[in-house]
Each structure stands twice: as C-alpha cells, then as structure tokens.
C-alpha cells in the first residue's frame, strides 16, 4: 500500500465505516473502547484469577470474532452487504447498539473496583445483586452481546455477522466459566442462591 497518509486514512476509515450512517456505529464502538480502556485503571487488587491457558477457551473466539467484525476485514475481502436497512433503519440499530453498551457502563459503574477484564476474585469481593446485577448475572456481557449482534445485523456482511456471533459465543463461554469460578470463590451457597434468583444473560428469563 502507498505511504501516502491520505490513502492510509482512507483504508482505516473504510469498509462499513466508509458511509454514513454506518459510520455512526463505528463511532459508538470507538468511543466505547476508548472509554473502557481509560476506565481499566479503576479496578481493585486481584486476589485470584483464572489461569491464562484456561481463559483461551473464551479469548480465542472473541479474538477471531473481533478480527472478522472489524470493517477492514470486509474491505479486504471485497464484501458487499447481504441486505440494506436504509438510513432510518441504521439509526434505529445505532440506538439499540447504544442502549446495549450503555447497559455495560451501568454495570461497570455499579460493579466499581470489583470489575476486571479477566475472570478474577478481587479483594473484598462479594455477590452483587442490585442494579443491573438484579436483572442478569452478567450485565456487561449482556450489553456487549446485544450491541455486537445488532451492529452485525445492521452492517449486513457475512464477516460482521459471523464476527458478532463468535464474540457472543466467547462472551457466553466466559460467563459460564465465571459462574464456576465465582461459585467456588464466593461460596456455592451464596452464589447458588443468586443464580436461582437472577437469569444469567437474558433479563426476565427463568433463572438457573
């Protein structure tokens, strides 16, 4: 590729980020990632965590999904959307995406210093069952899965949809691993009672 900065910028802002209003979806996700990374310093001291080798069970599908989800993948492959929603439809999808990632931030703020990007046991960690954690046991994953799937459908390319599905499966796998870990760390009786009261990922569904 040419070293011309203009061409580099054109490639970076390409794929499903090349036209409005799908650019709005990209802007929403870019702002979320930047804010999430910045907030990563707001986390308590880790007491115990899942081994890195074990975490590959959810990290690999999330990583592969993220690569497929990126707009540049579709651009390199020369993909065309399977369908078109039109501007109004994309705006609706953007609102739904924003709702999903807003849910993640509500959960992140509510969790406070107990939050971690990995599966960990923080100092002073206990079962939190209020706020978004009274609706689902893993509201951050719920919001991300919802936002990713909506964005994938809105973009409409095979890679974006497949990427969103893989990320969602990785998040679901992480949630299941976290359930086992937290049950052992926080107490099977206490966490088990929480599991019986609150659904894992989908609000208002039967718990278990």
Count of DSSP H/I helices: 8
CATH topology: Four Helix Bundle (Hemerythrin (Met), subunit A)
Mean residue pLDDT:
87
- N-to-C SSE series? HHEHHHEHHH
Span from first to last CA? Answer: 52 Å
Query: Under the CATH scheme, which architecture would be assigned?
Result: Up-down Bundle
Bin the strand percentage: under 5%
Find the structural class using helix and strand composition: mainly alpha
**Biggest sheet details:** 2 strands, antiparallel
What's the number of domains? 1
Report on the structure:
- The chain has 208 residues and is mainly α.
- The chain has a single domain (5-197), classed as Four Helix Bundle (Hemerythrin (Met), subunit A).
- Helices cover 63% and strands 3% of the residues.
- The protein has 8 helices and 2 strands; from the N terminus they run ααβαααβααα.
- The protein has a two-stranded antiparallel sheet with strand order 1-2.
- The termini are far apart.
- The model has no long low-confidence stretch (mean pLDDT 87).
Summarize the structure.
The protein is mainly alpha-helical and 208 residues long. Helices cover 63% and strands 3% of the residues.
Summary keywords:
208 residues, mainly alpha, Four Helix Bundle (Hemerythrin (Met), subunit A), two-stranded antiparallel sheet, 63% helix, 3% strand
């Amino acid at each position: 590729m040419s070293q011309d900065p203009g061409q580099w910028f054109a490639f970076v802002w390409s794929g499903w980020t090349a036209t409005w209003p799908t650019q709005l979806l990209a802007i929403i996700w870019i702002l979320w990632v930047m804010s999430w990374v910045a907030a990563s310093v707001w986390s308590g001291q880790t007491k115990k965590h899942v081994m890195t080798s074990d975490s590959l069970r959810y990290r690999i599908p999330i990583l592969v999904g993220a690569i497929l989800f990126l707009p540049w993948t579709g651009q390199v492959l020369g993909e065309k959307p399977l369908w078109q929603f039109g501007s109004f439809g994309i705006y609706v999808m953007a609102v739904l995406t924003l709702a999903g990632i807003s849910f993640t931030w509500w959960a992140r703020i509510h969790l406070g210093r107990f939050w971690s990007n990995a599966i960990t046991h923080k100092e002073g960690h206990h079962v939190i069952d209020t706020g978004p954690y009274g609706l689902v046991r893993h509201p951050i994953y719920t919001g991300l899965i919802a936002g990713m799937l909506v964005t994938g459908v809105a973009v409409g390319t095979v890679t974006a949809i497949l990427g969103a599905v893989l990320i969602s499966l990785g998040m679901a796998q992480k949630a299941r691993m976290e359930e086992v870990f937290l049950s052992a760390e926080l107490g099977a009786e206490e966490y088990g009672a929480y599991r019986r009261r609150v659904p894992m990922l989908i609000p208002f569904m039967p718990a278990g």
